[in-house]
Design a protein that fits this description.
The structure holds two protein chains of two kinds.
Chain A (H helix, E strand, L loop, with lengths): L2 H10 L13 E10 L2 E15 L6 E8 L2 E8 L5 E8 L15 H4 L1
Antiparallel strand pairs in A: 1-2, 1-5, 2-3, 3-4
Chain B lengths: L4 E12 L5 E9 L2 E7 L1 H4 L3 E8 L7 H9 L5 E8 L14 E2 L9 E7 L4 E3 L1 H5 L35 E3 L3 E13 L4 E5 L9 E6 L4
Antiparallel strand pairs in B: 1-2, 1-12, 2-11, 3-4, 3-6, 4-5, 7-10, 7-12, 8-9, 10-11
Classes of the chains: A mainly beta, B mainly beta.
Chain lengths: 109, 211
Amino acid sequence: MSKKIDELEKQLIPEKEFPVFWPGDDVAVHVRIKEGEKERVQVFNGMCIGKQGSGRRETFTVRKVSYGEGVERTFMLYSPSLVKIEIMKSRKNNRMAPRAKMYYTREKN
Amino acid sequence: MSIGLIGRKLGMSHIFNQAGEIVPVVILKTGPCYVTAIKNQEKDGYSSVQLGYEEVPEKKLNKARLNELRKKSLPLCKMLREFRVKSDSELKELSVGQKLTVEIFKEGDYVDITGRSIGKGFQGVMKRHNFKGGPATHGSMSHRAPGSIGGTDPARVFKGRRMSGHMGNRNVTVQNLQVVKVIPEENLIFLKGAVPGSGASHLIIRKALKK
């Protein structure tokens, strides 16, 4: 990615403040969703298993186990529909192996 | 055909629309272009505008180009390109030396982009024409081959048969790309979708023919 595009993205996509979290942290992601006319905020609870990209392009993947079935969702960090990120349990208090990509948790299910 | 602009690709990016949805965009640097010549029906037998783009230092141009531009006291443009128009009446508002900027396009407009695609060299039929190829396993010995190229009856291969050969590095036009954003101060235009080329080549931006 060229420097110029990075600059433009910083200009056009407003900055947001997030708590610092890492792969391995349990997070609750609040996302605004539209159902027909109505708008509501949905919460996705799970463990962050990886972060991708940098700058305004950064995304992160959250995994949870729902009714015995693993569910993964990738969010764009700077998406306007992402309202809030809460850290439920940080990695320090987690017994998870500290690594940048926690993909091994997929096999545990 | 209508008057357009000459530009270059900066790269791909994304922006969020009002609904919070992600829109893939390509960012182009276009203009300012200068009208370097006007050709009319009477004198030249057809109507068109010649535009110049990208100012360069003197040593980058040959003497023929240099003298032509100096004579008309125009900026030193690297790229000259003609735009055909239907009739002389479309040229009335233009004059030599006039500056055209991105502002001729607005948000919501549709444009056609012509550019040179990235050269891919000599390629087989699977990459070049999306052929299926043969089975990979089960004793197959024909993996990426084209298969049959015709019957025995005509005793020849029909013209236009798709085969392996040189791919890319040809002029490609992408139609009906929507203008998502225009930044006149920086001569930038944002289009939804992708355009041909690597960014090193020039692009022609015109109003969409079919919209």
